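Task card 7
Instruction: Convert sequence to structure tokens.
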Amino acid sequence: MVPGASPATLGQSAGLPEIPGAPGGGLQSILSRLNKVPVDQIAQNLLDITHRVDALVASPRLADSIAQLDDSLRQIHQTAANAGPKLAQLVQQLHATADQIDQVAQTANKTLGGAPSQNGIGSTLKEVTDAARALRELADYLDRHPEALIKGRPGG
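Output:
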């Protein structure tokens, strides 16, 4: 399409339809544009990229990294498989231990008659009670977040 060109009509030449065109168009124009494309440079760039990818894939460091990653994943799966069934037992034991600590603290408190002692037994009983509470909190947390045994506590 040529902007501002006068209307053209279809004609015939030697029995074939003839489509009018503007000067500078046609097959020669297309070939001229194709000749300007840097085919050699594009081919060289592709060849360079291919060599770099080959070197990367054949690198012993890549093979070693993949092997180490595979070993790490295998160990994580094994640890999770081993820890999973034991986690419920651990949580139960933590709760039982916390209950026992509470019973000891209550018995000691009854023995002392509920009065604070001058030799620090009152503060010791408070610490024992706090330890029981901390064990319960740990058991509850592990019950809700068993992955914390492997990953640790988020943000801490």
